[in-house]
């Protein structure tokens, strides 16, 4: 019987992790005991201590898992739907992903042997489920990293006024990410997270202030009257445009599956909910602020990403300030994707935590494979941006909504014959709704992404693979 087959029987409750003491089958381990862990085994002197992250470090890692360049797409969400519907979409998705993030902690409490989404896949779907998530989760993170590589190349081109071939900047992103993502524990990565968080928030603050004090956006007519076309409700929008906006917001919150890595490396998993609520509150407030302010001042003359909305000089400054944050984001995406594969390969072996040749060869090799794949995807697919939207609409929505709703139902539906309370029935209905809403978003978001790819071809905006062209002019 392997580790994934040694599942804990019992219900995932609806309360905090603070009251949980869930042993693995041999009774040795406790989810809140940092010295003994169901995934990493007993802590040994001189070995890698993965369970070393406090709740503040966890909050920062979670924040940087979610807040990346996607935050700068929030104004386009309001532009597509109008200020009121756009704000409500952000609030609704924020609420849903806060719950699904809470479910991640509950599921880890009830199944302490689960480290990442491959373990979830085994519990939900057996061996086929495990293999699906073993492929899907790292690939999702690899696509996110590839998207980040493109964003880094845009930033370098903007700052240097197209100082060299764009592929060269992507190589710089790849090498830098490999060096940073090779850091072994999330506790150490969280140090970078502070830098990245301050970097991105500073860039957001710069662009928010700049669009507020400027006379008019750069792309607006610079003389004479001009109409921003700011709507409380955009009646000119289309259904696909609206669903594209919903997919964008879901994609921007879709770091939830990586929270398994976070709670799995916390010293005290009972503090996970505190970190989650701080993270989600800051993320939602940031998304609403950047979305409302930039949309109000720029209207139809938005740049996407929003860093280009306030002129060339501000754009250069904002991208320069945002660069560290972009590097940290792709570092975390690469790290958590590679870590899942690494743990799966060495689980049950002394090499998982020992500083052995096998340990380092597998770890560095896994990170290297992830960054190389991210580089190839970012440069070889000419419609990569649209493809990322497609992957976000499918895998992102599946893992941060459908899978999480399914997780709660898997561990709680067995109580339906004993628990007839309205509270329990409401939770069942809520999680069924999350699963069905996720399926709807997958279908409509995929539709919108495919139409976007088709339109990109028809307008000739598709570039060639491994292009040296400047990609910052439209940003």
TrEMBL record:
The keyword Glycosyltransferase does not apply. PANTHER family: AMINO ACID TRANSPORTER (PTHR22950), AMINO ACID TRANSPORTER (EUROFUNG)-RELATED (PTHR22950:SF479). Residues 53-449 form the Amino acid transporter transmembrane domain. It is a multi-pass membrane protein. It holds the Pfam family Aa_trans. It comes from the Eukaryota. This is Amino acid transporter transmembrane domain-containing protein. The keyword Phosphoprotein does not apply. Belongs to the amino acid/polyamine transporter 2 family. It comes from Kwoniella shivajii. It is found in: Membrane. The chain crosses the membrane at residues 61-82, 88-107, 132-155, 161-180, 192-213, 239-263, 275-297, 317-336, 357-378, 390-409, 430-453. Keywords: Membrane, Transmembrane, Transmembrane helix. Residues 1-28 are annotated as: Disordered.
């Amino acid at each position: 019987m392997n580790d994934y087959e040694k599942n804990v029987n019992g219900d995932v409750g609806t309360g905090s992790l603070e009251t949980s003491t869930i042993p693995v089958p041999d009774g040795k381990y406790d989810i809140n005991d940092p010295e003994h862990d169901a995934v990493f085994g007993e802590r040994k002197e001189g070995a890698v201590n993965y369970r070393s992250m406090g709740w503040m470090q966890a909050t920062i890692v979670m924040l940087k898992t979610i807040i990346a360049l996607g935050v700068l797409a929030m104004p386009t969400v309001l532009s597509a739907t109008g200020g009121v519907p756009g704000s409500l979409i952000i609030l609704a998705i924020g609420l849903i992903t806060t719950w699904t993030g809470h479910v991640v902690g509950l599921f880890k409490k009830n199944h302490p042997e689960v480290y990442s989404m491959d373990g979830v896949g085994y519990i939900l779907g057996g061996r086929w489920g495990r293999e699906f998530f073993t492929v899907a989760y790292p690939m999702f993170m690899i696509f996110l990293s590839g998207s980040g590589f493109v964003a880094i190349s845009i930033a370098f081109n903007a700052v240097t006024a197209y100082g060299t071939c764009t592929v060269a900047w992507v190589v710089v992103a790849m090498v830098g990410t490999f060096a940073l993502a090779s850091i072994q524990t999330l506790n150490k990565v969280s140090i970078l997270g502070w830098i990245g968080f301050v970097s991105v928030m500073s860039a957001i603050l710069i662009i928010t202030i700049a669009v507020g004090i400027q006379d008019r956006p750069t792309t607006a007519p610079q003389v004479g009257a001009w109409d921003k076309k700011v709507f409380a409700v955009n009646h000119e929008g289309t259904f696909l445009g609206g669903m594209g906006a919903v997919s964008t917001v879901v994609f921007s919150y879709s770091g939830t599956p990586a929270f398994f890595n976070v709670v799995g490396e916390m010293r005290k998993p009972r503090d996970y909910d505190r970190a989650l609520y701080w993270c989600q509150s800051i993320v939602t407030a940031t998304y609403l602020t950047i979305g409302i302010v930039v949309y109000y001042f720029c209207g139809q003359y938005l740049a996407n990403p929003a860093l280009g909305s306030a002129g060339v000089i501000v754009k250069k400054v904002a991208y320069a300030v945002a660069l560290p944050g972009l590097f940290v984001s792709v570092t975390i995406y690469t790290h958590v994707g590679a870590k899942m594969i690494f743990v799966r390969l060495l689980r049950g072996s002394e090499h998982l935590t020992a500083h052995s040749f096998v340990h380092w060869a597998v770890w560095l090799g896994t990170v290297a494979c992830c960054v190389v794949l991210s580089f190839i995807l970012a440069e070889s697919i000419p419609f990569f941006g649209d493809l990322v939207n497609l992957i976000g609409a499918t895998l992102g929505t599946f893992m941060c909504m459908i899978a999480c709703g399914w997780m709660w139902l898997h561990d709680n539906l067995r109580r339906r014959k004993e628990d007839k309370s309205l509270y329990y029935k409401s939770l069942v209905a809520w999680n069924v709704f999350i699963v069905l809403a996720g399926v709807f978003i997958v279908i409509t978001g995929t539709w919108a992404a495919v139409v976007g790819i088709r339109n990109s071809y028809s307008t000739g905006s598709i570039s060639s693979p491994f292009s040296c062209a400047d990609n910052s002019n439209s940003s």
